[in-house]
Design brief:
The protein is α/β, with parallel strands linked by helices. The protein has 21 helices and 15 strands. The structure holds nicotinamide-adenine-dinucleotide.
């Protein structure tokens, strides 16, 4: 006998869930009391079903009704009614009376507590959250949410269901925003803070985010999601977690109050009238292949520095390495560009002052602006016009665009050298204001920090967090893997700098060090151990 799935609510999510379950061969009973919504749900399922497989037999497996039946033989019931606690509780109560005692009772809630929805319900061992992503037919991820009483059999059955419908499951605790909606918050919130600080324009920030590997920039994404929907998620996570770092932005509240909701209202961060906004595409120039006859010195050591020096060697005839800060006398006098890489996690002001003293005035000095406050350094330099602050998060290979600090003191020559150097390497540059972490350091660092906090708070395992962020919001790499690539100490340093400006709420979590730890070490395993 085919198994039965009971879906309650045939809106955006319910119709999608019904379609994927029917496609996997389940008989689907779908309940939708609103006649108009029923017609829209049917149309949506027909459209989605037409994407592949035998449409007629898929549709034949779906049975519609306008009320929850008194009795159902479903092995699993999933509610996808609007996000209101009292409504979901009453639906749960009706479902509890309708389904067999061993059947699973699931909710697709995004922001409510699964335990609260099931409050007062006797069979809590069968309660589970199945958090699908929109649109369910296309999105691979399902977050399986367990409450304290959820039994192992229920978890196993939920996994089997998710697998059978061709989705990938991650396990999460019943915490605000679960994994994805929580760990993604800093992407939006920190981007709006950067905009407010005037780091760059909306178009430039979106382009920087895309160049770092995000599928969409934060502002175009908020416009697509709907500013009101995105704000409601931020508010619900904030109201339940009460973490000041996740406080919704007044800027977004103001836009929502003005009715600027994004694409659906014709205007959000961008204006969609007259064919929509022009997207700023920072297409990196093709490497010219020319080798410039200049001496470039790279200061620092480690694999990232090796790779960087190797890239430079393709564009400059004479690339030298000085691995140790104690050996500055080894810097060749003919050096026209000095690239200070450092360890990425230490302020280099003292060293920059020393280099400024030692090097001829025509040498352009590049400094890592994520690690060093360039604004402080120039005040102490005799030739501040030669200093260029750059931002490369982890490796140049994975980043198509480099942030360059827009300092008034920089000479046109120095900025032209920066442009020429990065373009020769096949990278675009964007000029940004000098704030701690610039843009990408601030935004990616905060996402990594949130992921580390989520691990510490037993929301999910590191692997599930990384998988969830790749599948749920298309991150180019899981945030914890990204954090290991950038370095925990580097992220902690960047966030310590932002916290000085923005407040202690933005300080790095003390456990960021685990990203640099030996994964085989006992201490690492103890720190990353999830107790369930
Ligand atoms: P929706 O408004 O599109 O659909 C809800 C449907 O439930 C409507 O058709 C409504 O008529 C129906 N309904 C209302 N009361 C009912 C009842 N008593 N019995 C049966 N049906 C009833 O909402 P949605 O976007 O599909 O969201 C549903 C749930 O999924 C919410 O909990 C939401 O938080 C969650 N969710 C939404 C998204 C998303 O992006 N839309 C993503 C993940 C999870």
């Amino acid at each position: 006998m085919q198994e039965i799935v009971l879906v309650v609510g045939a809106g955006t999510m319910g119709a999608g869930i019904a379609c994927v379950a029917a496609r996997a061969g389940y008989i689907v009973e779908i309940v939708e009391p609103d006649a108009g919504a029923r017609e829209r749900g049917k149309a949506r399922i027909e459209r989605d079903a037409a994407r592949g497989g035998d449409v007629a037999s898929l549709l034949a497996r779906i049975r519609w009704s306008d009320a929850i039946p008194a009795a159902s033989e479903a092995a699993i019931a999933i509610e996808a009614v609007p996000e209101q606690l009292s409504l979901k509780r009453s639906v749960f109560a009706q479902l509890a009376g309708a389904i067999a005692p061993q059947a699973l009772l699931a909710t697709n809630t995004s922001s409510l507590s699964v335990a609260e929805i099931a409050q007062g319900f006797a069979g809590r061992d069968r309660v589970i959250g199945l958090h699908f992503f929109n649109p369910p037919v296309a999105m691979k991820l399902v977050e399986i949410v367990e409450i304290d009483e959820t039994s192992d059999e229920t978890i196993a059955a939920a996994h089997a269901f998710v697998e059978r419908i061709g989705k990938t499951a991650v396990m999460t605790a019943d915490t605000p925003g679960f994994i994805v909606n929580r760990v993604a918050r800093p992407y939006y919130l920190q981007s709006m803070r950067a905009l407010e600080r005037g780091v760059a324009t909306i178009e430039e920030l979106d382009a920087l985010a895309r160049a770092a590997g995000f599928r969409m920039g934060p502002f175009e994404l908020m416009d697509l999601i709907g500013l009101d929907v995105n704000l409601a998620t931020s508010e619900s996570v904030y109201e339940r977690l009460r973490a000041p770092r996740l406080e919704p932005q007044p800027m977004q509240r103001a836009l929502v109050a003005q009715g600027r909701l994004g694409r659906k209202s014709g205007c959000g961060f961008y204006d969609y009238a007259n064919g929509g906004p022009e997207r700023l595409d920072l297409v990196p120039p093709p490497p010219s292949g020319d080798v410039m006859d200049e001496c470039v010195t790279v200061l620092g050591c480690g694999p990232a520095v090796d790779a960087f020096a190797a890239s430079l060697a393709r564009c400059y005839s004479d690339v030298r390495r000085v691995e140790n800060d104690e050996m500055l006398e080894e810097i060749a006098p003919e050096t026209t560009v000095l690239f200070d890489v450092g360890d990425g996690a230490t302020d280099r002001t003292e060293l920059l002052v020393e280099l400024d003293r030692e090097l001829g005035p025509d040498t352009v000095i590049f400094a890592d602006a994520y690690a060093t406050d360039i604004g402080v350094a120039i005040k102490r330099m005799r030739h501040p016009e030669r200093l260029v602050g750059y931002g490369i998060l982890s490796s140049l290979e994975t980043q198509a665009v480099v942030e360059i600090v827009d300092l008034e003191s920089s000479s046109d020559d120095a900025l032209a050298v920066a442009q020429e150097l990065f373009e020769a390497l096949g990278k675009s540059v964007v000029l940004v204001e000098n704030v701690p972490g610039l843009y990408l350091g601030r935004v990616v660092g905060s996402i990594v920090n949130e992921a580390v906090i989520a691990v510490q708070e037993n929301v999910a395992t590191p692997d599930d967090i990384d998988l969830a962020m790749r599948l749920g919001v298309n991150y180019p790499i899981g945030p914890l893997a990204w954090g290991r690539e950038i370095g925990g100490a580097r992220i902690a340093h960047i966030l310590r700098r932002t916290a000085k400006d923005d407040g202690e709420a933005f300080a790095p979590h003390r456990a960021l060090w685990v990203l640099d730890a030996d994964e085989e070490s006992e201490q690492f395993e103890a720190e990353m151990e999830i107790e369930r």
